[in-house]
Amino acid sequence: MSRPFACAFVALTLAAAALPAAAQQTLQRRLIYDFSVGVQNDTRDTNSAVSNSGGPNGGSYSGTGDTSYLGVASDMGTIDVDIYGVEPDGGLVLKVGENGRSNRNNAAVECVVYPTTNVVCGQGVVTPEEMAIIRTLSPKFFDPSALDAKRHWHEGSATAGVSLDFTAGVPNGTLIPITAEDNEQLPHDGTLHATATYTYDMGKTVTTQVKDYETLRRQNGPGEYADIVFDITATLATDSQTAKN
Fold first, then answer.
1. Are 167 and 151 in contact (CB under 8 A)?
2. Across-strand partners of 9?
3. What does DSSP say about strands 105-113 and 67-86: parallel, antiparallel, or unpaired?
4. 160-188 pLDDT, tens per residue?
5. Exposed (0-12), middle (13-18) or buried (19+): which is 153, by Cβ within 10 Å?
6. Average pLDDT value for the chain
């Protein structure tokens, strides 16, 4: 079954989705990642201000109206991923939740992750740092036979405005470095550009390290623009499958 690409990096508040029956399977594996995230929000309003001066002889006055606001936030903690199985169409069924030390705490949300890195989730909030981790967790995410002569492969949908390019480096044992570039067209003339590096373990079929840098540009209203930057790092700290071996 084909599914549209979900915006991969933007924090998502999603309506309830029809998740597969596989979501009811027994827990098969738990991954816990240590993460850190920095968020910078630069909002600018370029509207010319026109206001009423008030008083008995009030009138209007105009100014440039150019204003800006810069907000900075950060957090660190753990992201828990519970894996329940794989659908017949290759989708990995999991739940992801976030435990930050300050304000980034989110209850677990059910999601299905496809080899294309497309992610479909149920009701709840999925943050950029959670998405940066789970989007590569499909056991078929990395397929050496699909690489071109430059060790590159492409995912995306022109209709959805999503273009992702991955390049695999030289393996070191079972570990392989992967770089990624993501360009997306978002609603209301928004854009997303992201670059990421992954350390992917071909033996465990999971990403063990993520470094992700994302710039989201969007228009909030006439003359009002926002640039939001996410700087994300994550490292696999616990793998229940390894613990059993």
1. yes
2. none
3. unpaired
4. 899 999 999 999 999 999 999 999 998 77
5. middle
6. 83
